[in-house]
Amino acid sequence: DVFARGPHGSLLHKWWNGQDWSGFFSLGMPSTEHKDRPWIPFTGTVAACSSGPRRLDVFARAVDGNLYHSSLQGLHD
Prior knowledge:
mainly beta
């Protein structure tokens, strides 16, 4: 699995299926309640680890200074 920050600050994910790499799939950005800025772009390095079989935990810091976490479960082999 590969995680990256997209050109506008979204979190991107791609994976190897045993034969080919997928394209990048956007996991998006954290949302806010502000109408003038509904999304908070990520900045800096993305970190990922596995806390169990077929599970990934992804961590990234956004421009608001907060560290965000997302769990991906039921992943491919």
